[in-house]
Amino acid sequence: MRYASIWATMGLVVLSACEHSGEQEVERALRDINVIDESGLNDVMMSVAAPEEAVNYFSRAARENPDRIDLQRGLATSLIRAGRGTEAVSAWQAVAAHPDATADDRVELAGAFIRTNQWDQARATLSAVPPTHETYERYRYEAMVADAAEDWTRADSFYEIATGLTTTPAGVLNNWGYSKLTRGDYQAAERLFTEALRHEPDLFTAKNNLVLARGARRDYNLPVVPMTQQERAQLLYTMALTAIKQNDVTIGRSLLEDAVETSPTHFEEAARALEAMG
Description:
Oligomer: single chain
Largest sheet: none
Strand content: under 5%
Number of strands: 0
């Protein structure tokens, strides 16, 4: 009986240990599931959620988990999406100061400085990134910083490198073209805007910039690119203003009339400009 009691007691201990071990396994599995679910939610918030909603989510999450750099990144990214540049700079500075910060984080801090026109800080931040860190975002920002300093040789070099590091170069080609436009190199600008539109036919800013480049050369014919009726009206308006600015007033008036007539809805700006011309 004594041995039976001992074995019974041992059985209870073993059973208790198994139950305890099982509970731990369940808790660990639940934690893993929560991490997966949270990671998915974080991705959704950073990419498709409304900007202010994402800011609120990551602000709360970062307060509750102040050591989590992923949540700090989410907050910084969401502030950029929400157009809250000054706050985004502070958020990216906090990320860059984190022990687990990466070179990508410092590049994003430079981008936040650029968005708030803090060019010296952006330049200094990029200079501190190792030269071996060669990414699209790094060279895109390097090009913009060089542009701001009117260091055209470096700007062109960085734009070219950035273009080769992405499969979606329309945005950087548009920026490069606008840089050429501000320098007065209208033919190069037109070529770059046209190339941007080959990659992204719906990029309206490139269409508008292309019209500016053509107008600057007194070529007042709209480019042959895909456009909606509303876009056509807007581009005619842009061309008209370009012509008027260059004292080609008669052409400008005619283009304004075309813009008003072409627009599928009332085009207040064009109509007001036309009325002002008498």
